[in-house]
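Renewal narrative, Specific Aim 1. Our central claim is that a sequence can be written position by position from structural information alone. The example that follows is taken directly from our test logs and has not been curated for this report. It begins with the structure tokens describing the chain, in the order in which they were read.
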């Protein structure tokens, strides 16, 4: 347990905002030290990890303190969400290198709300724009939250459609939390804040660097119950997000388009390779009907009692690795990850450092 949650939150901010360490290095340091606050006072984690940049780190913290960046962000409505916080999206604990800190502006959907991730080309056809808006509007009316990446094109159309439908939205940024990119989306960003939240794992002021976006995409695919692709060329960045989704055990949906449209060929390829072909939003709503029905009152197993699925998965109160759970359950990696993902989203199970899982309990 941290000595002070307030101090730990600020220390996590320093670790992220310094810009010195990669996401993997940040997690390594946290894993060794047990807290970001400990990194301020102890050089042992730096020695043990071989990450010998502590002097530069402390100098950067002095600068951040003198600029009062943390306090200024708070005053502008930015929240700092730790991985351990109850409001942290449970499904993000399944992504590769889960962010230990998220910057949030606006209001995140309540825990347990079901989401659908929507992506597509930045250069959509009129057909694609209309379909993205129409699907998003109907999906939020059906109870799903729309998650997308705020890029121009299909991302923007999906978010506008969800807003017009009166639903909840989450925009995942590939920049710092207060950077508007692309610039023409300033009105969209303001509308998102009235209906949901903008989030980022990148340091304040981070610019739209090319390598940020593939990394951001694991959060987009990881957040939702499934991933919907509206339009995509064969050689688009969308394919990378689809790979993230498949690795995370998510359902992938693709909308077919005109056979003479380059923007349809990526979706057609996904369908040939096993993505769900969808023509109507209701098809997706029906697939997630059980999750939508139970989202406000998830079944909570009696304390100390395992339900049949948990028995099958091999989950107990102490964390177990994926390999252990595969051996106990007899499930394939893909089936096990899919079932575990649902358990974490339902908050009956939780993920721990090192990709281990346990039943949700007060002990851990």
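The sequence written for that structure reads:
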């Amino acid at each position: 347990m941290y000595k002070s949650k307030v101090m730990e939150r600020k220390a996590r901010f320093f670790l992220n905002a310094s810009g010195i360490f990669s996401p993997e290095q940040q997690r390594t340091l946290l894993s060794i030290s047990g807290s970001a606050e400990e990194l301020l006072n102890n050089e042992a984690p730096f020695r043990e990890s071989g990450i010998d940049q502590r002097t530069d780190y402390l100098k950067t913290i002095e600068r951040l303190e003198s600029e009062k960046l943390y306090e200024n962000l708070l005053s502008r409505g930015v929240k700092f969400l730790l991985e351990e916080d109850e409001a942290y999206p449970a499904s993000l604990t399944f992504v590769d290198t889960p962010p230990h800190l998220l910057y949030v502006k606006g209001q995140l959907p309540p825990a347990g709300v079901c989401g659908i991730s929507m992506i597509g080309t930045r250069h959509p056809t009129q057909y694609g724009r209309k379909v993205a808006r129409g699907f998003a509007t109907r999906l939020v009316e059906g109870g799903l939250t729309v998650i997308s990446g705020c890029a121009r094109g299909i991302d923007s159309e999906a978010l506008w459609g969800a807003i017009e439908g009166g639903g909840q939205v989450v925009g995942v940024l590939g920049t710092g939390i207060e950077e508007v990119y692309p610039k023409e989306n300033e009105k969209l960003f303001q509308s998102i804040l009235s209906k949901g939240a903008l989030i980022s794992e990148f340091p304040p002021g981070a610019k739209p660097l090319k390598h940020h976006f593939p990394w951001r995409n694991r959060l987009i695919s990881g957040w939702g119950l499934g991933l919907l692709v509206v339009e995509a060329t064969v050689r688009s960045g969308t394919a990378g997000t689809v790979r993230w989704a498949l690795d995370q055990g998510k359902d992938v949906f693709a909308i077919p388009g005109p056979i003479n449209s380059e923007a349809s060929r990526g979706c057609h390829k996904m369908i040939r390779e096993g993505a769900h072909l969808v023509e109507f939003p209701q098809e997706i709503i029906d697939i997630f009907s059980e999750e939508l029905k139970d989202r406000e009152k998830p079944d909570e197993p009696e304390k100390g009692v395992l339900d049949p699925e948990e028995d099958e998965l091999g989950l107990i109160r102490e964390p177990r690795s994926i390999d252990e759970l595969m051996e106990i359950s007899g499930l394939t990696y893909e089936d096990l990850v899919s079932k575990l993902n649902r358990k974490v989203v339902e908050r009956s199970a939780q993920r721990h450092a090192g990709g281990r899982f346990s039943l949700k309990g007060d002990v851990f």
